[in-house]
Amino acid sequence: MGKITFYEDRSFQGRCYECSSDCPNLQTYFSRCNSIRVDSGCWMLYERPNYQGHQYFLRRGDYPDYQQWMGFSDSIRSCRLIPHQTGSHRMRLYEREDHKGLMMELNEDCACIQDRFHLSEVRSLHVLEGCWVLYEMPNYRGRQYLLRPQEYRRYHDWGAVDAKAGSLRRVVDLY
């Protein structure tokens, strides 16, 4: 089980809302979010309702302002608890849509997809085991996308605006 607390003001001040499960519409509880405390679990936050818009991956810890979680603004409108992870992680990356072209398999974190696989874009992928976070830039920077076990035939399927792929990180058990 996870627990996250959202605060309207920086440094854990102002109105707050505590959450322990997925919430598709947080805007009924607060108007802005400037700090967050994650007591347990791993979470993906979204700037718009219904798990849309920019995504932000947070682990247990304190985030006294939105820049600490690489936020673009104080807008957090939905959140998702990432399931408890045990066992292995495995995914396949493809250079073309619909799982075509060159395929690479991955079962560990990758700080730079370009260095490892000589690809700067990933057009489709298949998460076989575990949850992952895809970052648009190397070294776990830039926009973030939660990847759960399923097939993603196009980069739009994971919410991306383009096929940029810089790094991948497994969501490991941090509970």
From TrEMBL:
GO terms for biological process: lens development in camera-type eye; visual perception. PROSITE patterns: CRYSTALLIN_BETA_GAMMA. Pfam families: Crystall (PF00030). GO terms for molecular function: structural constituent of eye lens. It comes from the Eukaryota. Transmembrane segments: none annotated. Residues 2-40, 41-83, 130-172 form the Beta/gamma crystallin 'Greek key' domain. The keyword Magnesium does not apply. Keywords: Eye lens protein, Methylation, Repeat. The keyword Repeat applies. One of its GO terms (cellular component) is nucleus. Belongs to the beta/gamma-crystallin family. Crystallins are the dominant structural components of the vertebrate eye lens. This is Gamma-crystallin C. It comes from Cricetulus griseus. The gene is LOC100759825.
